[in-house]
Amino acid sequence: MAAELNDSGTAANTGVPGRVVVIGSLNVDSTSYVDAFPAPGETILAREFHVALGGKGANQAVAAHVAGVLVEFVACVGDDSSGAFACETLERLGLPTAAIRRVPDAPTGVAQITVVASGENTVIVTGGANLALTPALVDTERDRVAAATVVLTQGELAVATIEHVARVANELGARFVLNLAPPAPVSAAALGVADPLVLNEHEARAVGIGTDASTGASLDEWRVLAASAAGGIARSVVVTLGAAGAVAADATGSWTAAAPRVTAIDTTGAGDGFTGTLAAFLAEGRPLPEALRLAVAAGALAVQARGTVDSYAPRIDVLAAAGIAD
Fold first, then answer.
1. Which fold is adopted by the domain 17-25+55-108+128-322?
2. Among candidates 14, 97, 5, 20, which has minimal Cα distance to 53?
3. Chain segment 174-205, per-residue pLDDT in tens
4. What's the pTM value of the predicted model, to 2 decimals?
5. Among 272, 310, 317, 326, the one annotated catalytic
6. Which are the contacts of 53, defined by CB distance < 8 A and separation ≥ 6?
7. Of 58, 103, 141, 247, whose CB count within 10 A is highest?
8. What's the rounded Cα separation, in Å, for the pair 185 and 166?
9. Other C-beta atoms within 10 Å of 9: how many?
10. For residue 182, is the peptide bond before it cis, meaning its omega torsion is within 30 degrees of 0?
């Protein structure tokens, strides 16, 4: 379902409830599939190699779009072949590119990814043109933010930009969702307006949630920890726990969502699939516990296919996997 563009170049309302504006990173992923991670100083041969659209911002924008809501994506790419490839891919997927800026004399961001046979991965990100997504550029997009139901950003942007997105979204009345991945020294004020703050276990510990939790703590233990932070560190909190599932808490309660048992082929981008899906269903007006279940289902479906954006299942499959009606 592609968004239509009006005369100003912004996405026109297509009648679908909810509107997500993603302000985030856009990379081109270079992924090598190997039997095992190399040791320091070791050279190994890859079994396969793929180049694809990536970056947490782009991944989450695609996931939200696939979930069925109207999405606009504010990002920066280089004036190079990788930037052209990224924009062409987004257009193929039905996402508008009017808010993506071409930055001269800067390379498009890149992620170097290694995936082993178990599906686990390592990722090295070089920001490139993403560093041009500054607070000043965010200010030029205030009309888009004002029209948004949910504004979503991630830890791959500069801290000053993340904090400014939080301020602008809060000022204009949009629900601010922050995926602090990777962890960044974002101010308490910015964290405080996140609704929710989305973290994995490592990121949760980095902001002071679950610092004393044992390795392998249960979903219910993490639910209690999330509840202790909701209304304090952030308005609401979501913690993802990989194959175990995820937990969420806000001022009204706390919840767990266990993940189904699946065989993981590639975990790359699964967390972004989770977050984009969560944002989409929140924008649609679903309550947090229901959006959590849908996001867990989307993440479980994503790990069963290779790649990032191409692994995100369509809305109908996510709803069916979660056992929730449209």
1. UDP-N-acetylmuramoyl-L-alanine:D-glutamate ligase (3.40.1190)
2. 97
3. 999 999 999 999 999 999 999 999 999 999 99
4. 0.89
5. 272
6. 26, 28, 29, 59, 62, 85, 86, 89, 90, 308, 309
7. 58
8. 14
9. 11
10. yes
